[in-house]
DUF2079 domain-containing protein
Amino acid sequence: MPAALLPWGWAAVLFALYATVAVRRHLLLRTTGYDLGIFEQAVRAYAELRAPVVPLRGEGFNLLGDHFHPLLAALAPFYRLWPSPLCLLVAQSALLAVAVVPLARWAARALGRRPAHAVAVAYGLSWGIASAAAFDFHEVALAVPLLACSLEALAHRRWRAAVAWAAPLLLVKEDLGLTLAAVGGYIALKGGSGARRLGLVTAAAGAVGSFVEIKLLMPAFHPHGGYAHGGNLSEGYGSLLSTLAHAPLDALRPDVKAMTLVLVFAPSALLALRSPLSLIAVPTLAWRMMSDNGFHWGTAFHYSAVLMPVVVAGLIDALTVWRRTGHPLASRHVRASLATVLAVTLVMLPSFPLAQLAQRATWRGTPHVGAARALLARIPDGATVAASNRLVPQLTSRCTVVVFPTFPVEGKLYQYDNKRLPPPTAQWIVHDRRAPEAWPYKTGHWPYPIERQEAELAAAQERHGYRKVAERDGITLLRRG
């Protein structure tokens, strides 16, 4: 393979891996309304030239009030051509895969062709990317290639190009303005007097951009005002000084936080910590570790995807610095380091979602999946439907769908303890009483325990005018009137 094609060859291989896992999960009913269904409703609205109002998040809920991600509209033309949740899953696979191109290209120039292969494996099979590729669709997929290109530009001291690649992060998610600020800080630190002004302006623009999005823009779009995820913010210790004093310990408690901090840099065998580029990961790690939401502390879901290009860039940078020393053992050190990186990658691989490719269940349909598809086919296009979380994304391309039982309540997340939920108003209800197969995540019913779900299903028939149309293999289809 010609050297110029090496990075693109890896991108093609990784795209095939990610897309295979993502598509098979969807076909096996493992994708969810939260989050694939939500993002499909938003992109579908953009494709139809409407505001991204998402029924799954609440009546009249503009998704820009949940997270600030107007760059999602870039996917609308593709969805217009292929109106399917698979469009989003394939697009995400492509975005995550193409990020390997600037990293492998940089590694090939700085370290050589063979090390570039090792770097591509370290990125492509890293747990942070695997977890994102195998859990629905999320807007951060747009950030991963942008940040990878920015990091390559930083490595070659192309400061303006680095800022140009990183600037769109402000349109991907509200916290990524802080990552843009970190890029600016790196330029100010490393760029000398000529680039210092550019770095400082970039850092200020990123910080101010995130502040404006969180404090002004998102509350303007949110039906109830305020920051939708403000409840995840720690209340602190009564004063700014006390909060700052406790921050180092809070970032490591409970133990899962410390474990995640180690695992974030594990794909580089911790060598990325020797590079100042790793400082660009600090904003994302800081808000996650200081959050009150336990989901942010661990290794599951999509939260670490944006960190993986930073970690791999730090690895390349650290090894490049060593090679430039001219030490007689430099080549041996690089080879040993990359061998360790590959060993760590392979050891961690079975614990994360790409291992699904080696499982028989990934390649076999089940009678339950067949029963679900048969019942869903009876729901006409354009209908309004309340569906179990795992059935939602099977319908969002052709129906208006909400989660059954009602969630969220009045557009507010985590309202689990209401004594009485609002009654369903959709034309159809489709409910699956079987706990979904959700490896590597916990198997269980969401958003309410199965007893609560079945009580609401019974109430729909007894009190709210729904009648049973069909029932197969634990899946119940109701129609109103």
